[in-house]
């Protein structure tokens, strides 16, 4: 047993509005974790088999840049989801993720979630809708960071 109740999970913004039975199915794949600042959730290029829903704290998504410090694409906060790459092949992390401060989260076994979504197409549909919203927002954040990185000095000074 994971120790995470359906009631706890139902209060997380990413899962709000799911049916009770759907949240119960997810609770069986969840574990409550606490990690210190500096904890690395995953590295770019690693195998993606888990994801996290942040309860408290901040997690930075980083992009490796050869010869430079990693570029922080976005800082995630309470209510956010960490990790999308588990949801589609090749199940390989596209970014890295590190806790910026002590963080509490629900950690999910992605394989168990995929099986739960396969068993309940309604849950699968709700999960995909939510994941697509997160993916769209992450793409926007990545675009903004890349524009900041590659804009000329004149373009950066425009209002």
Question: Your description of this structure?
Answer:
The chain has a single domain, classed as Jelly Rolls, CATH 2.60.120.10. The mean pLDDT is 91. The longest helix is centred in the last third of the chain and has 30 residues, at 121-150. It is of the alpha+beta class and 159 residues long. A hairpin with a 7-residue loop joins strand 4 and strand 5. The protein has helices at 6-10, 20-27, 110-119, 121-150, 153-156; strands at residues 30-35, 40-42, 50-56, 59-63, 71-76, 81-82, 96-99, 103-109. The strands form 2 sheets. The protein has a 4-stranded antiparallel β-sheet. It contains 5 helices and 8 strands.
Q: CATH H level: which superfamily? A: Jelly Rolls
Output the helix-strand order.
Answer: HHEEEEEEEEHHH
- Work out the count of structural domains: 1
Q: Flag low-confidence runs.
A: none
The CATH topology is given as Jelly Rolls
Q: Note the total helix count.
A: 5
Alpha-carbon distance between the two ends:
54 Å
What portion of residues belong to β-strands?
A: 25-35%
The CATH architecture can be given as Sandwich
* SSE class: alpha+beta
Largest sheet: 4 strands, antiparallel
In one word, what is the shape?
Answer: globular
